[in-house]
Amino acid sequence: MLSALLWVPKGASKPVPATAEPPAKEEIEEILKNGLVDAQGEDENDNAKEEGMDLDGSKRDDEIAQALAAADALGKGSRGTHPETDSITDALKELDMDNYDEEDDGIELFGEGLQTLYYPSNEMDPYLNDKDDDDSEELEDMTIKPEDAVIVCARNEDDVSYLEVWILEGLEEGDSNMYVHHDIVIPAFPLCLAWLDCPLKEGEKGNFVAVGSMEPAIEIWDLDIMDEVQPSAVLGGIIEKKRKGKKKSVKYKDDSHTDSVLGLAWNKEYRNVLASASADNMVKIWDVATGKCSDTMEHHSDKVQAVAWNHFVPQVLLSGSFDHSVVMKDARISSHTGFKWSIAADVESLAWDPHAEHFFVVSLENGMVSGFDIRASSSNLSSDPKPSFTLHAHDKAVCSVSYNRLVPNLLATGSMDKTVKLWDLSNKQPSCVASKNPKAGAIFSVSFSDDCPFLLAVGGSKGRLELWETLSDVAVSTKYGKYIKQNRSAQT
Question: What is the Cα–Cα distance from 447 to 457, expressed in whole angstroms?
Fold first, then answer.
């Protein structure tokens, strides 16, 4: 399945990603050490299993010895007794494997018998010329052009989890091509992603993705490095696991989450700041430059599913929980109780309106989507501000929502009912503009591209990345076609 996806801004990726250096000896020893720690106590019958493996190994050794003896006997048997093996014996004798490594002084390396394999110069060798062509073609395939769109998908397949970096090229020419540029194997089932450009290494900006998973650690991977085996940074996580008898103890890093990380949000104004939501009922604010947690918020009483920073006031953070509430807090004042909205079901996702600083939407497990104006809120927790609208958007859980950055009041929703819908929220009276079943299975993630605003990426249970060019829908092109020229003029 594709559990999450995101667009990387155009031009943020290196044209040719670097290849990871192999880990140092000390790093390998640390990985092995951690692996041994995790393995200890996982199964009380480990020793018994190892003994069984030793017995099996001895048995296999005996079988191999018997097979070798039988083969030797066949070779020494009288000719004609076993005609089906005589040809094999002859072939082995002809190869003379006992003297395989001994060179024959009579053979000249560049003798007349090998004339066709030797060329006076590399330029005359067609094989090397072809190889050069192949290398240039491979380099061309690996080059990410400034006009290429890049999409990162979190995939889980056959108990293996990894990030796929997709390239979408040829959009401007109208003849698009999409392929996986490279992937990154990750150790745990991914649940959420957040792109960030905070320079964790040298330079002014980076190209990183933060990954929240079934584990309490948040891993940050460099998208400009291929074949990487370790993240660039890890926020929180487990130090060690121990088991004594039936009791199991876990030791966490300082200020770490203690359960799955369900939601992530990067602050585009304060580029070193990342917010996380967890099944441990907590919201945390991280400084990714130092790898430290700067604040922990415990204003929810159940799993926190989603977090989002306000586009206009970047210190304001929104969080949604399974406790049927959405809370808005100023991250600068952690002691403040914040503003709270009650909702009818578990929160699946939420998003601030990029065109109106006072408005946000929240999608729910029961298929509903509600919109709220924060100006109607109060810090009095006994008050219960009403939503600006409540929409029965889908028949099942609405797992993901995405605002269009170009078109005001255009919202995409994706649901477990396998459909994606586009909504016009004008005047707080939602109307469905278009609906589609993208054949992606149950929809877990939808996202409009900022660079190609009418292009919607969709990921779901079938594990395929699907793209919906929404302008291909007549209703969409009729209603919003005027924004195409506006977008082109903005780009030029």
Answer: 5
